């Protein structure tokens, strides 16, 4: 077995391990009386052991892929997102050992699973590095930034648990709406993974020529039935659907098509779930959060930000500036990705100050943590795919 | 303003909330509240005390964290708006009209509005710069307002606190003890083992650890200020050089911004990944996206005119050979030269042949150097060609005259005068790529034979004296945040009450969970009374339920 295939097998093993560990964390939560104490029960021990095994194979994936390609596997969307999922699990393990709360695992692992699933929808082959990426600062910068982001993400997990536990879903309220919206967003991602895998399995392909925004002819391949056509498109593949509409040159109609398909399948999935259970999906998750101790979740959320913020600063701003100075001759260029890293940083700075000086803890703090995660994901997904800049992994 | 005298006899500055020494509440509000606000130890702060003059008002404005947060959010929002459409910097245009047209063409009305509002150059706009300036001001004033009183009151705090202070802590417990003396001794031992600094006074213990972490925010704010100051300095000439230079293969040019230095470009190299070397690992990726660039590189030699050398003299000393690669700039004397761009295959020279039309026989060949063309070319048998006019970037005829768009030989055109023994007065011919024009029918023509090309490297020259200052700011910031984030200031008070009971109280600026863990250990060893975390209502309820069972 070559290194590259060993690497993908290890990733698969860790994916399964996380699934199994989630079940055991469920058992641990069920068996716990309350979570304000820091004692382990047996289910919890098994769950964390499986998680650690999954994490080790995940790191094994990372190292073997590094060895196979000769560079740190953080150079495209698949690699970066998978690494982010890995660090999320790592950050969870760290906080589990500090606080011993199975509830955190019950929510953190499924989110890691969704993230890894999302990652594997991108092209998975190993790509060689273009000149601008050939620098050890790439490795240092991206790994530290992702590590910081993943620890910050744990605060959103704790926040989510806090909200599920404390928001009254029986009465109509703004909070109820937004909590359901958060769950809906997670379902959208699952919808994307499902629809994308379906078309991938059927091997769907449609090729077009079009005119790009610099008025040059170009070619593009869709993996979804083309709902929207690129500007001046002409089909190269016979027997595919005719796009509904032609887009202006600035819109990437392929991305738009993928987006609409994912949203549509996400909505469909959500509606099916609603039809089956006949109540907001968040209420289905609430029993899993009931055992958690609110004060503890609040503290874990704050602690995660406190641990993650300095690491994020170091990786996403300081190392980024050093690298930008070596590669592009200026340490800061107001590239969209850079700006969004700055925005994330400012957001968490505001978060800390609100908490410290304006007493925004508990529910307010939990909402802020969730919003922070949304910003991180926005930077990871939307900025890479939509607002193209120097950093774009396209 | 008058001092406030506490019952314990200590003189506190005007505005004090909790007595600096014994902790007794001094204001009505503090006396009534259940939990005291421990954030600045109840010390008097300028912003909370003086509110009259203009200076007070400005001070109070910037020292408010509410305002500080608003400024942070304003910077954040402005920065985000700047990413909706590309910034001016990333648009290939040079005049305002071209920019306007670009935003209009690609983004329609929204683009025009974006352009008109100046959002296309957001980060250089006066309002963005003002916001950043306000952020800096706010950080400075807010820090000074707090750090001094905080420092003073932490220094002055007494070991024995008044019971009213203890009772108003978030972590508090009281209860009878069989042997309070022994309990205190055991507690002291355990606390020392947990690495607390323990002070004892008159039947009271103050255990404290990691006070230095309280300075973390101020250290990190200092780092931010140094960083912002560094950015400010870049506006001053001499601190910051940023130039671009285009250099052709074989050329030697002076380096803009770096007086006395010259660069010779020997070769520009561009490589793509090849199927063979990429072997099976990258094969799939190459298959999918086609070509992937591997390397951009300019091989150069650096020269310097000797110090005290005569101006205008050509003498240059060789300094070094270097290959400038992306991510590996050439460094010398505080300057960095980066590989940024390139243009392939610029025309370098063209070779022509003078031909007699009727017989197709050659009268000889000549080569025109396109950047530095000669005026006359002597051929065999007394024939010669005179270059009467040259248009390096020919752009058609305007007002009866041929015109050149630029001095770069993208589309060279020539007017040749062909002087031959048969036509000694000469014939005129206009020659451009793929066309020849003659005013009257000539006997001779200039025929294109071949062209030579070369590559041009686009280099950026930087010198940035402020970088070290920025780095220093970054390092100080990191020290500060780590100090505040990875350590926390914990205090535990234990003292004997008047009736033989024991009082315990605890405070930390963050991470209450760990404080409670440590307190539990001390409690177990020394048999201290149990305590409550008055903010954790769920646990208190649960404990009560457990008690009932
Ligand atoms: C982007 C800018 C800023 C950053 C990155 C920053 C960073 C920080 C950090 C990390 C802390 C510690 C927080 C904690 O321990 O939870 C802190 C505390 C603080 N910051 Fe900032 N800050 C910034 C701007 C400001 C501004 C504009 C103000 C002005 C009002 C301010 C006032 C404070 C205060 C009063 C504290 C609490 C100090 C204490 O606990 O004694 N900061 N800051």
What is the general shape of chain A? globular
- The number of distinct β-strands of chain B equals 24
Helix content of chain B: 25-40%
Order of helices and strands of chain A: HHHHHHEEEEEHHHHHH
How many H/I helices of chain A?
12
Poorly predicted spans of chain A? 388-394
Helix fraction bin of chain A:
55-70%
Q: Span between N and C termini of chain B?
A: 58 Å
The quaternary organization reads as heterodimer
Strands of the largest sheet of chain B, in order across it?
A: 4-5-22-23-3-24
What small molecules does this complex bind?
protoporphyrin IX containing FE
**Measured on Cα atoms, how large is the radius of gyration of chain B?**
40 Å
Largest sheet of chain B: 6 strands, antiparallel
Q: Helix segment count of chain B?
A: 13
Main beta-sheet annotation of chain A: 3 strands, antiparallel
Strand content of chain B: 25-35%
Shape of chain B: elongated
């Amino acid at each position: 077995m070559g290194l590259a295939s060993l690497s993908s097998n290890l990733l698969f093993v860790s994916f399964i391990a996380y699934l199994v560990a989630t079940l055991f964390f469920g058992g641990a939560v069920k068996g716990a009386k309350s979570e304000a104490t820091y004692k382990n029960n047996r289910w919890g021990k098994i769950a964390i052991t499986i998680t650690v095994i999954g994490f080790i194979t995940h790191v094994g994936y990372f190292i073997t892929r590094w060895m196979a390609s000769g560079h740190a596997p953080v150079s495209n969307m698949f690699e970066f997102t998978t690494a982010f999922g890995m660090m999320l699990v790592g950050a969870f393990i760290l906080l589990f050992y500090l606080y011993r709360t199975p509830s955190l695992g019950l929510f953190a692992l499924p989110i890691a699973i969704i993230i890894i699933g999302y990652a594997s929808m991108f092209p998975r082959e190993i790509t060689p590095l273009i000149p601008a990426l050939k620098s050890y600062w790439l490795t240092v910068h991206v790994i530290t930034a992702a590590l910081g982001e993943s620890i910050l993400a744990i605060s959103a997990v704790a926040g989510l648990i806090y909200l599920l536990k404390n928001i009254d879903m029986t009465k109509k309220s703004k909070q109820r709406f937004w909590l359901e919206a958060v769950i809906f967003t997670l379902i959208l991602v699952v919808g994307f993974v499902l629809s994308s895998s379906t078309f991938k399995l059927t091997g769907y392909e449609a090729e077009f020529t079009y005119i790009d925004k610099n008025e040059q002819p170009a070619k593009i391949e869709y993996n979804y039935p083309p709902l929207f056509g690129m500007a001046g498109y002409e089909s190269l593949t016979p027997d595919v659907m005719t796009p509904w509409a032609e887009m202006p040159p600035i819109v990437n109609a392929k991305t738009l098509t993928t987006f609409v398909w994912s949203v549509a399948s996400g909505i469909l999935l959500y509606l099916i779930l609603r039809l089956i259970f006949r109540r907001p999906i968040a209420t289905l998750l609430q029993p899993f959060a009931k055992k958690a101790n609110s004060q503890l979740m609040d503290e874990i959320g704050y602690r995660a930000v406190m641990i993650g913020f300095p690491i994020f600063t170091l990786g996403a701003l300081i190392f980024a500036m050093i690298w930008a100075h070596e590669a592009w001759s200026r340490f800061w260029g107001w590239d969209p990705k850079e700006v969004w890293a700055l925005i994330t940083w400012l957001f968490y700075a505001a978060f800390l100050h609100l908490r410290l000086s304006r007493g925004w803890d508990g529910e307010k703090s939990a909402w802020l943590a969730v919003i922070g995660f949304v910003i991180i994901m926005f930077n990871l997904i939307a900025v890479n795919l939509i607002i193209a800049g120097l950093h774009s992994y396209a | 303003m008058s001092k406030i005298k506490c019952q314990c006899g200590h003189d506190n500055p005007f505005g004090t909330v909790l007595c600096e020494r014994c902790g007794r509440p001094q204001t009505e509000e503090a006396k009534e509240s259940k939990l005291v606000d421990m954030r600045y130890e109840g010390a008097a702060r300028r912003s909370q005390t003086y509110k009259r003059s203009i200076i007070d008002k400005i001070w109070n404005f910037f020292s408010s964290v509410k305002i500080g947060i608003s400024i942070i959010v304003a910077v954040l929002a402005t920065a985000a708006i700047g990413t909706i459409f590309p910034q001016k910097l990333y648009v290939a245009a040079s005049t305002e009209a071209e920019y306007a047209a670009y935003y209009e063409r690609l983004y329609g009305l929204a683009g025009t509005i974006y352009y008109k509002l100046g959002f296309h150059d957001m980060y250089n706009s006066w309002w963005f710069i003002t916001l950043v300036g306000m952020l800096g001001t706010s950080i400075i004033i807010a820090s000074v307002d707090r750090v001094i009183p905080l420092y003073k009151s932490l220094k002055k705090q007494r070991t024995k606190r008044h019971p009213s202070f203890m009772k108003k802590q978030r972590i508090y417990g009281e209860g009878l003890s069989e042997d309070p003396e022994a309990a205190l001794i055991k507690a002291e031992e355990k606390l020392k083992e947990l690495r607390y600094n323990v002070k004892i006074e008159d039947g009271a213990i103050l255990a404290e650890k990691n006070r230095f972490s309280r300075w973390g925010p101020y250290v990190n704010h200092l780092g931010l200020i140094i960083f912002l100051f560094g950015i400010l300095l870049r506006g001053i000439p001499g601190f910051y050089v940023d130039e671009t230079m285009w250099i052709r293969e074989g050329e030697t040019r002076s380096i803009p911004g770096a007086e006395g230095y010259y660069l010779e470009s020997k070769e520009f190299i561009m490589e793509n990944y090849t199927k063979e070397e990429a072997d099976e690992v990258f094969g799939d990726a190459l298959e999918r996206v086609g070509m992937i660039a591997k390397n951009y590189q300019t091989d150069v030699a650096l020269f310097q005119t000797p110090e005290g050398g005569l101006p205008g003299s050509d003498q240059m000393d060789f300094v070094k050979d270097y290959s400038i690669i992306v991510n590996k700039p050439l460094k010398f004397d505080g300057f960095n030269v980066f590989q940024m761009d390139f243009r392939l295959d610029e025309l370098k020279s063209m070779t022509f042949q003078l031909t007699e039309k009727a017989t197709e026989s050659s009268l000889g060949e000549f080569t025109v150097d396109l950047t530095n063309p000669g005026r006359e070319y002597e051929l065999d048998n007394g024939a010669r060609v005179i270059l009467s006019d040259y248009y390096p970037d020919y752009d058609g005829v305007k007002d009866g005259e041929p015109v050149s768009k630029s001095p770069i030989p993208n589309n060279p055109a020539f007017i040749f005068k062909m002087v031959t023994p048969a036509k000694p007065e000469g014939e005129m011919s206009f020659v451009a790529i793929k066309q020849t024009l003659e005013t009257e029918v000539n006997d001779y023509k200039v025929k294109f034979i071949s062209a030579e090309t070369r590559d041009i490297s686009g280099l950026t020259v930087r010198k940035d004296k402020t970088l070290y200052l920025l780095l220093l700011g970054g390092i100080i910031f990191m020290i500060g945040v780590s100090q505040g984030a990875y350590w926390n200031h914990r205090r535990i008070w234990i003292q004997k009450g008047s009736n033989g009971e024991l009082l315990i109280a605890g405070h930390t600026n963050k991470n209450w969970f760990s404080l409670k863990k440590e307190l539990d250990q001390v409690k177990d060893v020394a048999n201290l009374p149990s305590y409550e975390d008055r903010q954790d209502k769920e646990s208190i309820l649960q404990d009560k339920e457990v008690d009932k069972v």
